Prior knowledge:
Blueprint: E1 2-6, E2 14-17, E3 28-37, H1 40-46, E4 48-52, E5 55-58, E6 68-69, E7 73-81, E8 93-96, H2 106-110, E9 133-136, E10 142-144, H3 150-153, H4 159-167, E11 177-181, H5 185-196, E12 201-206, H6 209-217, E13 222-225, H7 231-237, E14 245-250, H8 255-263, E15 265-273, H9 287-290, E16 294-297, H10 303-316, E17 323-326, H11 331-339, E18 346-349
Parallel strand pairs: 11-12, 11-14, 12-13, 14-15, 15-16, 17-18
Antiparallel strand pairs: 1-2, 1-6, 3-7, 3-9, 3-18, 4-5, 7-8, 8-10
Helix pairs in contact: 4-5
The site of one zinc ion has 8 residues, from helix 2.
Amino acid sequence: MRMFQVCTCGEPLQLNEAPTPEPKGTEVLLKVIAAGVCHSDLHLAEGFFDLGGGKKMSLADRGMKLPVTLGHENVGEVIALGPDAKGIKVGQKVLANPWIGCGQCAACQRGDDNLCRAMKSLGVFSNGGYATHVIIPHSKYLHDIGDLSPERAAPLACSGVTTFGALKKVPTLKNEPTIIIGAGGLGLMCLALHQKMGGHSAIVVDIDDAKLAQAKKAGAKAIVNAIAADAVQQVMKLTDQGAGAWAVIDLVGSSQSARLGYDSLVKGGKYIVVGLYGGDLTVSLPPIPMRALTIQGSYVGSQHEMKELMELVKAKGMPDVPVATRPLEDVNAVHGELRAGKIVGRVVLTPAA
Length: 353
Ligand SMILES: [Zn+2]
Ligand SMILES: [Zn+2]
């Protein structure tokens, strides 16, 4: 098998070869058909997240061991089963849920693998799909894609379930506008799923007019450029009685986006941070109880949310998010383009093509 690995943090991914693994126990071997390139892969390749104020969170400290094959948005064809693998057949085309926990702790027992303290996520803590083949530890992490296109289905594993998990945390989804900060790949996915979930309306905020125009075309009720000095007032004006937002989903997660999102809340409102751009937020404490505000983090999605998302897209159709395919060998070039902000929508690598 061939795979692109992080060998040294901050260096381009390295092409390595190894014997194709034989699945053991409950493991399932997939031939990778489609592997989405996610913005967080850039952080993984660099080896850290920016915590703001000059502080960094090292991924090595969080258990990332090198070399590791990146790629956590994978669709593949089942080509071999371990002796104890059940509920899956050779030849099936499947989406792999990469958010895999230890399987033992209380969170994993509930299916909240995304809250496990010892995650083994594919493409982060274990080898992922920037490769010709990938091993999945158990068939419970695999979802048959049916007639869905592999390239379009792959982003559901991260971009899809991450925005779905955040949208599920919005109690007012069907009754009030939801503010979505970020109109990149994640933003367009969030907007599309918001519509499929029967969301009331979405107001999309970004600093890029071209991306905002795309969000408007994709059905955003209103758009706001965050560079404007009165961006908070503009957002609030678009809410019920101009009082502020019941829910803000921040897909950027920078100091600036957090400030804007938090300051746009109405009494009782919820600021949900998803993006991992990096930075910090200083807030006064008394308004949190007095205005009953919630600050909530949302990290990918649970096993239940992944399953529910697959059912939603099978019933209501795939989110109409732009997807471009590229050969596996282009991965470093794609990372460069993503870092430069040149990619609209999602790029999916096609190792089997
Ligand atoms: Zn991702
Ligand atoms: Zn666990």
